Structure formats: C-alpha cells, structure tokens
C-alpha cells in the first residue's frame, strides 16, 4: 500500500525531529492509518529501517491480505502483548523509544521500561494524529464516498418522512438506508430531534412523534470503507413559524460566511470567530455554546478544530465540518453542517444537500 508507506516515511521525519529511534503505535486507528490493517489488538513498531506489526494468530491471514509484505510479529498463544512488544523491541535494538502519550496506559509504559532498562522510553504526543490532519488523495476520495452514502440515504429519508413516525424510527431507518446504499453503517448514532428537543446538541432519538412540532433537526453521517462523513440539516415539517425562519437564516448566514473564510493559512480560531460574531450580533451569542467545527477522517472527531483558541493555520488537504448552531431551551435549536476540504487556493464544499430555507420546507 503506497499511501501507507508514504505516511510512515512522513512519520519517520517527525520521529527524527523528536529525537527517538522508534515509535510504538498503540492507537488502533493510527495503526490502520499507517498500514491499512483494519483489525484491532495490534501495535505497530516504526523505526528507521522498517516497521513490524505486533499481533496474534487471529489476524495472520488478514494481515497478509491487507498489508502484503509488511513484517509481522505474531504472538503465540499464551504470550501477552507486553512480552511481544519486548521481543520486537529487542530484535530491533532500539535505544530511545517513543510511545503514544494519548493511547498507552501509564501501567504498560512502566512495565515496558522495567522490561527494557537499557531503552529510554519517552512520551510522544500526537505524532500520528498531526499527520492525519492533512488528507492525501486516497483519503479524500474515501471521504467523498462516505458523503455520497450519507446524501443518498438522507434523500430517501426526506421523501418518506411522515408525522406519525417517531424520532427513533427515523434514526433507525436512516441507519438502514446508509447500509442499503453501501456504507458500513452510521459514523455515529444519528441525532433526530423534534422541536424543543433540537435545543439539545447531542439529543438521543426518543418516541417523540415527528408531527408533534413544526420542525426536526437531523444530524447524521456514513462510515465508508474506513472514512466518515458528518452532516446536519433542519427540516420544516409543519407551518412555518416566523421565529424558526429568523433563527434558521442567522445560522445559515453564519455558516456560509465562515465557509467563505476558509483558506490555507487562516486559523481555526479566526474561522470560528466569523460565525460567532455574526450570531452574537443577531442577539444569540449566548446560545452558540460549542466550537464551529472539527476534522473528520478515520474518526468522526479529529484534528484540526475550528474553535476559539485554535491558532494553528489550516493547510491544504484538511477536511473539516462547519456547523454553527443556535439553541434555545424550551423552544428548539437550529444547526446546519457541511464537510469542507481546504484546497491550495481556498476551499471546496464536499457536501451538497440543499440548505436554503425554502428548500428545508417539506411540502
């Protein structure tokens, strides 16, 4: 897998800058990113001269199929991961080992250091995660596919939405439609929130009827082969309340202006500020309580973040959500979300579900 090999080469440059001879990758998602292996319970040791997956017999064939030519240390029955890692490290003759600070437990690190007294063990924070923030062509293609699954499923849901259906029935049907169109499933449990329940940014679907209010918020995404998508729309299912139209147009304007600001070099802080200032000027500043967006990829939430205090510049190849919202307890909420690719000259909106207010109104 050429893409995985290129990613490992980039990682080696980061390791060299950190001053470590090797990195023990213990985050299973990071292992997938660097190898293409989709199993779990496996670590990856990357060093200057090569790499080795430390796994067990359950995955022997899968590793051969997904990662042909990649060295593997298959732990025999009865050998724990600690012993497997120790043997792999001893064979590679590592003097200074980096370990993933956000993944490895303190207990495992201490045991490893005790087993290898001649190896310096140092924590390495987010080396792989930083690489994952900038997607290559293969990753972007997979995200596009995950978006296609999500949009096709939503089109069916929209056409079949009925007032007598419950939030949970709609959420379950949406997940089923995602699979019917070819997705592995939903990238997270769909949010279907009617009326006042839309004021909960992470509302869980209930037995509330779609027809019990004039509008419903739907937040969903698809898991493709490996990569994910994330969208949100509000649909008007009854008469059109003047307050809903006003709030909707404020959120849509904030989203469109924030998207327009996305380009290489701008910070997540500044993109967030564009939307936040517009919402505050409209009188709803206290009702937008989360960051504007986040990266998507192998995980539904990953770097970079579009939020206050996020000052690192955006780079071409990053894929982020832009999802401003206004939440009014007791009344409801509006959030509109799209997936955006940062390009060399600006940005590309990857999602295409209609979102103009008139298009949100069901006949």
Commentary on this structure:
It is a single chain. Helices cover 37% and strands 21% of the residues. A hairpin with a 6-residue loop joins strand 12 and strand 13. The protein has 2 domains: 130 residues, Creatine Amidinohydrolase, Chain A, domain 1, CATH 3.40.350; 224 residues, Alpha-Beta Complex (Creatine Amidinohydrolase), CATH 3.90.230.10. A 6-stranded mixed sheet has the order 4-3-2-1-5-6, sandwiched between helices. A 3-stranded antiparallel sheet has the order 8-9-11, with helices on one face. Strands 14-17-18 form a 3-stranded antiparallel sheet, with helices on one face. With 363 residues, it is an alpha+beta fold. It is built from 11 helices and 18 strands. Helix 7 crosses helix 8. The model has no long low-confidence stretch (mean pLDDT 96).
Summarize the structure.
The protein is an alpha+beta fold and 363 residues long.
What is the CATH architecture descriptor of the largest domain? Alpha-Beta Complex
In the CATH hierarchy, the third-tier topology of the largest domain is known as Creatine Amidinohydrolase
Tell me the overall shape.
Answer: elongated
| End-to-end gap | 49 Å
* Low-pLDDT stretches: none
The biggest beta sheet is recorded as: 6 strands, mixed
> Strand order, biggest sheet?
4-3-2-1-5-6
Beta strands, count: 18
Element string (H = helix, E = strand): HEHEEHEHEHEHHHEEEEEHHEEEEEEEH
Radius of gyration: 23 Å
CATH class of the largest domain: Alpha Beta
Mean pLDDT, to the nearest integer, reads 96
Q: Name the assembly state.
A: single chain
Number of helices: 11
Helix-strand category: alpha+beta
Q: How many discrete structural domains?
A: 2
């Amino acid at each position: 897998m050429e893409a995985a090999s290129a990613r490992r080469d980039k990682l080696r440059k980061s390791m060299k800058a950190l001053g470590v001879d090797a990195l023990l990758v213990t985050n299973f998602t990071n292992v997938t990113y660097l190898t293409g292996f989709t199993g779990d319970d496996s670590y990856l040791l990357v060093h200057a001269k090569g790499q080795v997956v430390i796994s067990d017999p359950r995955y022997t064939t899968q590793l051969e199929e997904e990662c042909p030519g990649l060295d593997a240390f298959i732990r025999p029955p009865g050998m724990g991961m600690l012993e497997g890692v120790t043997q792999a490290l001893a064979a590679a003759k590592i003097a200074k080992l980096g370990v993933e600070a956000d993944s490895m437990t303190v207990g495992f690190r201490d045991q490893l250091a005790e087993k290898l007294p001649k190896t310096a063990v140092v924590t390495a924070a987010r080396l792989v995660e930083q690489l994952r923030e900038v997607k290559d062509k293969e990753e972007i293609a997979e995200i596009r596919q995950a978006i296609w699954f999500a949009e096709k499923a939503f089109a069916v849901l929209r056409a079949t939405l009925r007032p007598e259906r419950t939030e949970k029935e709609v959420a379950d049907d949406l997940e089923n439609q995602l699979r019917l169109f070819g997705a592995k499933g939903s990238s997270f449990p769909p949010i279907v929130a009617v009326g006042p329940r839309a004021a909960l940014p992470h509302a869980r679907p209930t037995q509330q009827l779609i027809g019990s209010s004039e509008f419903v918020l739907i937040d969903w995404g698809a898991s493709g082969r490996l990569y994910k998508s994330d969208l949100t729309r509000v649909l008007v299912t009854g008469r059109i309340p003047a307050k809903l139209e006003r709030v909707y147009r404020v959120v849509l304007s904030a989203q469109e202006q924030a998207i327009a600001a996305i380009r290489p070099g701008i910070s997540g802080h500044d993109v967030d500020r564009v939307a936040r200032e517009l919402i505050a000027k409209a009188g709803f500043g206290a009702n937008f309580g989360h960051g504007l967006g986040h990266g998507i990829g192998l995980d539904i939430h990953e770097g970079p973040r579009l939020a206050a205090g996020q000052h690192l510049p955006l780079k071409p190849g990053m894929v982020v959500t832009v999802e401003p919202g206004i939440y009014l307890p007791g009344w409801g909420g509006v959030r509109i979300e799209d997936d955006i690719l940062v390009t060399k000259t600006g940005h590309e909106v990857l999602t295409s579900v209609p979102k103009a207010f008139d298009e949100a109104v069901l006949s």
